[in-house]
Amino acid sequence: MSLHEQIATDINTVIEQHDGVDAISAASIALVLHDRYGGADAEPRLGYASLEHLKQMARARLGKRYGSPSGSPADAQGELFANALQERYPVPTPKGGEPVYKLTSALTHDELLWNAVRLEKAGKTLLEHSRALKSLAQERGHDPANDDEPDGTGRNAA
Predict the structure, then answer these.
(1) 1-56: pLDDT as tens digits
(2) How many CB atoms lie within 10 A of CB 45?
(3) What gap in Å lies between CA 89 and CA 100, rounded to an integer?
(4) Which long-range contacts (CB under 8 A, 24 or more apart) does 103-109 make?
(5) pTM attached to this predicted model
(6) Helix or strand or coil: residue 38?
(7) Which residues, 6 or more positions from 33, have their beta carbon under 8 angstroms from its beta carbon?
């Protein structure tokens, strides 16, 4: 297991250890691991850089696990509605603020509605994107001259 994979596993472990708390953020996870890894004893610039990288990794794990507004829709597409509701949802944060994920049972009325609107906007955007792709496919038809590959498959080898 690579060092990156070990840290990712450690991040997942910290997330699981905090399953019962109402809210969890990437910063809180990163601080736990930063302390565990001896970050407080590091040269200040290295300590800062490592903490910021741990936050970035934790942000990605939380987003993948609980659905981040900035995450890729493809990441969560298969899992999004597997059990109707997720365990946690993001809550509104100030622009540039650290995403915080709350237990669904702890969300306020306004936070529930905020998430519903956020998901509706994401769904609308995905639907518009899908329609644009279908329109492009229709415009191209089956004329191999419009395809990128000389064999006419339309598959990009890159």
Answers:
(1) 899 999 999 999 999 998 888 989 999 999 999 999 998 888 999 999 999 999 99
(2) 8
(3) 8
(4) 103/21, 103/22, 103/23, 106/22, 106/23
(5) 0.59
(6) coil
(7) 7, 10, 11, 14, 54, 58
